[in-house]
Amino acid sequence: MASCRAGSKLIVPVVLSGGTGSRLWPMSRASFPKQLWSLVSERSMLQETVLRGQSAGFAPPVIVCNEDHRFLIAEQLREVLVEDASIMLEPVGRNSAPAITAAALLVTQTHPDAVLWMMAADADIKKSEALTQAMTKAVQAAEAGRVVTFGMTPTRPETGYGYIEKGAPLPGVDGVFAIKSFREKPAQAVAEEFLKDGNYFWNSGMFVFRADVLLDEMRRYAPEVVESVTAAFEKRKTDLDFIRLDKAAFAQAPDISIDYAIAEKTQVSAVIPADLGWSDVGSWDALWDISPKTADGNVLLGDVLTEDAHGCYIRSEGPLTAVTGVDDVVVVVTADAVLVTHKDRAQDVKKLVDRLKTDGRGEASEHQKNYRPWGFYEGLIRNERFQVKRIVVNPGGKLSLQKHFHRAEHWVVVGGVALVTKGDEEILVREDESVYLPQGCVHRLENPGKIPLTLIEVQSGAYLGEDDIIRLEDSYNRN
Q1: β-pair type (115-120, 269-274)
Q2: pLDDT-based confidence at 163, cuts 50/70/90?
């Protein structure tokens, strides 16, 4: 891993990108979660997060992510010229404690005393200068052996965040305090008392610590996490540009956050109160709160028309969305779903997603547009025995060599040029030309050109599920 130092200290940002952001449904879903969307700027939240470390001159980041998102994340890093990042794949989700332990094991191979800056990929920070000042204090405290977190100065009696109660000042670094207690998400009355007290701060979930200190504290308070993750790390494999942890070993790790694993138990914890303009962007009302607004207090994105509407968040990813005569509502329109809720009930969106999952609805986790390492496909029409998709293959992209037991496919090229493997043949298919692939035919699609290849695919057969793909050869090491 490449290194970069701030002063004499190696500082490695560790970005955890494993969440799905279900309260921001229907935009955020498991197939393309909120950290990959451009929600607060022209860049995605992941890109904004990694650029904070790069702009400070820190080491290339370690990204710990769901393996299904690996190519999306790699592409987003390339878009903002973040090079030499280490992308570590979680074979199963096990919360933040196993994830940060794996990252610490990676860093300690070359720099055991490096300072790690752990943060989620989906938070927003508006005040960069205040962050720089807080990080300076945090690194000094971490160098002295502290496990440091940031307490965000509360601006309202928020019930959606956990809180940190500040203790006595710690010697050595001004503005660093012991942690008296961690408090769970409070009821409204308790949150109001916290705000009046002035000694409670929102738990940002960001931590700063030396890698060796983190591992020592994990061995002391959560040895079962270290044991499982160490086994998974030792059996890791390099897969293209990714570090793939062993699935069987990693699955044995407890599903536990760093707060529960060590932060609430360690004797070396510390908090730095700070006003960073921070938001976890965890719900639509939180996103409304931090977004630029019209004179009517509305946040309007996409093809949106309003009349006599105030204090609303309205976003359309496709069709014209017209809203009139309502206040303080959230309206989000995607290709396959529409959400309407009052801002005060924005936290309840997760309940809707849980119901969709219970009902077996694909909209709970999948978008109509599904990204792949070679490009993407988008569902257009689906019926009982046929469906129509738009497929876009990037220049040089190549689908797996595959076959299907239950469906035939008809491809019509509408842009670019396709090189199609059909059995023992290789066929060049140009714009306005087509090719038919019967059921059971071994085939492959690739783009040999310099512009994106776009085609319309018509599938027909008794079963059209994505699991009816037998991959015989794949350039991206997918099973």
Answers
A1: unpaired
A2: very high
Superfamily in which the 369-473 domain is placed by CATH: Jelly Rolls (2.60.120.10)
Neighbours of 391 (CB within 10 A): 20
Q: Averaged over 93-119, what is the pLDDT?
A: 96
**Directed axis angle between helix 96-108 and helix 211-221, to 10°?**
130
Query: pLDDT per residue over 367-418, tens digit each?
Result: 999 999 999 999 999 999 999 999 999 999 999 999 999 999 999 999 999 9
**Domain residue spans in the chain?**
5-279, 284-354, 369-473
Q: How far is CA 166 from CA 180, 249, 297, in A?
A: 6, 38, 35
CB 277 within 8 A of CB 125: yes
Query: Cβ of 292: how many Cβ atoms within 10 Å?
Result: 6
The pLDDT score that the predictor gives to residue 392 is 98
Quick one: CA torsion of 138, 143, 144, 145, rounded to 10 degrees?
90
Task: For residue 466, report the phi and psi dihedrals to the nearest 5 degrees.
Answer: -70, -15
Cα–Cα distance between 186 and 333 in angstroms, integer?
Answer: 32
Spelled out in words, what is the top-level CATH class assigned to the domain 5-279? Answer: alpha beta
Dihedral angle sign, alpha carbons of residues 201, 207, 212, 215: positive
Strand partners, 10: 5
Instruction: Give the closest residue to 335 by CA, choosing from 393, 376, 372.
Output: 376
The model's pLDDT over 419-447, given as tens digits with 9 standing for 90+, comes to 999 999 999 999 999 999 999 999 999 99
